[in-house]
Amino acid sequence: MASLTGEVLIEEAAPILDALYQGDWVHIGLMQADKPLTVAVSNVRFPTAVTAFLDCKNQLLPMGYRQVRDSTFYLSPNAATLTAEEWHRIDGIARYIRSQNTIKAVLVDGYMNSNARSSVKLRQSKEIADEVASLFVEKGIAPALIEVRAHGGRYPQDENQPAGKGRVRVRIVQL
Fold first, then answer.
1. pLDDT of 60-107, one tens digit each?
2. Residues in the chain with pLDDT < 70?
3. Is the Transmembrane helix keyword given for this protein (predicted)?
4. Parallel, antiparallel or unpaired: strands 146-150 and 2-3
5. Domain boundary, last residue among 40, 59, 78
6. Please, what is the angle between helix 118-138 and helix 84-99, to 10°?
7. Can you name the residues that pair with 44 across neighbouring β-strands?
8. Which residue range is the domain that position 18 belongs to?
9. C-alpha distances in angstroms, 119 versus 102, 116, 130, 133?
């Protein structure tokens, strides 16, 4: 039982919503000053309310500006593949960009740290940056918004960068 501290902790709210949606009443047990308290939640007009709530929730962006403004991806120059989590982040960033009319630019910077010659690192960093930029274009971002820059090995490898992979940093510039 939860205590009445002004804090509501709900773990696994979906079964509660499902029960109310199917016509059940839900009884919630609480403790107030060491005294049990039961609150009954009625299902009256609940389907209409939950439908409106879910419609609203589904229109929310998956990520906010603080989450999309600076993102890093690690790609192999020979096989630029993203993990499922990275695909999800690319999609979230693209949805955010499409929803805002204040985005001035999407900077896609490629970096490559390897033992290769400088010209090879520069080419590889451009390839991985172009790959990420093309994903944004596929997701509906105007190419005119995207600026691709290749840095080769000019900047040091970051501590999270896996060996043999290049780094692509995506930054959102907002008015």
1. 888 888 989 999 998 887 776 788 888 999 999 999 999 999 999 999
2. 1-11, 80, 156
3. no
4. unpaired
5. 59
6. 60
7. none
8. 2-59
9. 36, 8, 16, 21
**Residues in the chain, overall count:** 175
The structural domain count of the chain equals 2
**What tokens appear for 141 in the block?**
């971002």
pTM value > 0.85: no
Tell me the three-class secondary structure of the chain, residue by residue: CEECCCCCCCCCCHHHHHHHHCCCCEEEEEEECCEEEEEEECCCCHHHHHHHHHHHHHHCCCCCHHHHCEEEEEECCCCCCCCHHHHHHHHHHHHHHHHCCCEEEEEEEEECCCCCCHHHHHHHHHHHHHHHHHHHHHCCCCHHHEEEEECCCCCCCCCCCCCCCEEEEEEEEEC
Q: What is the pLDDT of residue 60?
A: 85
Q: Are 151 and 92 in contact (CB under 8 A)?
A: no
Residues 96 and 115 occupy one common structural domain: yes
What gap in Å lies between CA 20 and CA 8, rounded to an integer?
Answer: 18
